[in-house]
Amino acid sequence: MKRVMFISSVGGHLTQLLELKTIFKDYNYVLVTEKNDVTKDMKKKYKMEYLIYGSREYLFKYVFIFLFNIFKSFYLFFKYRPNVIVTTGTHTAVPMCYIGRLFGRKIIFIESYAKRTSPTLSGRLVYPIANTFIVQWETMLEFYPKAKYFGGIY
């Protein structure tokens, strides 16, 4: 059975990723997100792993959290050895996408539904290495010409 890692930051990115939950059962999957009050109980329902939540609002602290999460991403990658990494972004997922690509894994990036007229930073960073890049608005093909548009995942 194919091993798939679904990864995103908390909030809207995780909400969008969970729209794919009907396909989780088709794979040997793990769901990776940041740990907070909302996500800690998700372990009862999903196979979960957590990274540390970090807000770019506190830049100095965020740098250290981001570095820690990069090392933890390596650990999680080697623990689960996913064949495919699926993400809706954001900063939490970018290191995992690069780690996966470094080791020849398939990267599927789904640009945020909230973005209709401008790309996200994580989208711009992952677009060059993604095997499949999906936009949820046709207008986003202007920024990502090689992307695929199927409509929204909601």
Which blocks of ≥5 consecutive residues have pLDDT under 50? none
- The whole-angstrom Rg is 15 Å
Proportion of residues in extended strands:
15-25%
CATH level-4 homologous superfamily = Glycogen Phosphorylase B
CATH class type: Alpha Beta
CATH architecture verdict:
3-Layer(aba) Sandwich
Question: What letter string, H or E per element, gives the SSE order?
Answer: EHEEHEHEHEE
Largest sheet: 7 strands, parallel
**Helix/strand class:** alpha/beta
> Could you say which overall geometry the principal axes of the C-alpha atoms support?
globular
Q: What is the helix fraction of residues, given as a range? A: 25-40%
Distance from N terminus to C terminus (CA atoms, Å) equals: 27 Å
Q: Compute the number of strand runs.
A: 7
Total helices: the number is 4
Which fold name fills CATH's third level, the topology?
Answer: Rossmann fold
Strand adjacency order, main sheet: 3-2-1-4-5-6-7
Q: Average pLDDT value?
A: 95
Total tally of structural domains? 1
Description:
- 28% of the residues lie in helices and 23% in strands.
- It is globular, with a radius of gyration of 15 Å.
- It has helices at residues 12-17, 59-80, 94-102, 121-126, and strands at 3-8, 28-35, 48-52, 84-89, 106-110, 132-135, 148-149.
- Strands 3-2-1-4-5-6-7 form a seven-stranded parallel sheet.
- The protein has one domain (3-149): Rossmann fold.
